[in-house]
Write a structure and sequence with these properties.
The chain is 48% helix and 25% strand. The termini are far apart.
């Protein structure tokens, strides 16, 4: 019985290995279509498939529609992604159904959403707009006069606390040294004549 079970497990392992290799090569040849399609299909309408049309090749990614914008990420390098935000025009519907999921085509050169007849409907540079948006979000804010005054007062109070802690430590060390040296000093002063009397 163990030999039959072992032979069945070996056969299943072989089939699983060949199936995994086939899925890997299919995913590699389809330029990321298989994984993205599976994630869009299992999102139950939350995500859409984005087909990015470039002059040399077409590639796929998954996107999301948030507040009238199509948002998707494109890979620029290893763990380097750019987030693209494209405005969806109000008067047209660029989405279509294929393989039971919603699709949207994007022109990579114009950074524009493409209609189903392959004419671009939004023609601004999404990468430049995204970079400007990121710079606007990350720029340092100019502090007001009251904030600068509060920051200055906090720094002054902190410095005063540090200085008082230092003086307290030094006075404690001096008192401790005085207490340790007081008996020796009194002993050395014994026998000294002061005003005709012996201490």
């Amino acid at each position: 019985m163990n030999e039959i079970f072992q032979s069945v497990m070996i056969q299943a392992l072989y089939y699983g290995l060949w199936g995994s290799l086939c899925l890997f090569f299919v995913g590699a040849f389809q330029r990321g279509f298989f994984v993205n399609y599976f994630k869009v299909r299992t999102s139950f309408g939350k995500l859409v498939m984005v087909k990015i049309r470039s002059p040399l090749r077409d590639y796929f990614c998954r996107g999301e529609v948030i507040e009238g914008f199509l948002i998707y990420k494109i890979k620029r390098g290893f763990r380097d992604y750019d987030t693209i935000r494209l405005n969806i025009p109000q008067n047209i519907n660029p989405f279509y159904k294929c393989i039971s999921v919603a699709w949207c085509d994007v022109d990579d050169e114009k950074h524009a959403i493409v209609r189903t007849d392959y004419s671009a409907v939004s023609g601004y540079d999404a990468v430049k707009n995204n970079n400007l948006h990121t710079r606007a979000l990350m720029k340092p804010t100019i502090a007001s006069g009251q904030e600068k005054l509060m920051l200055f007062l906090i720094i002054v109070v902190g410095l005063l606390c540090l200085i008082s802690c230092y003086f307290a430590y030094m006075s404690n060390a001096n008192v401790t040294a005085l207490m340790e040296g007081l008996p020796v000093m009194l002993k050395n002063m014994a026998g000294t004549v002061v005003g005709g009397t012996t201490i």
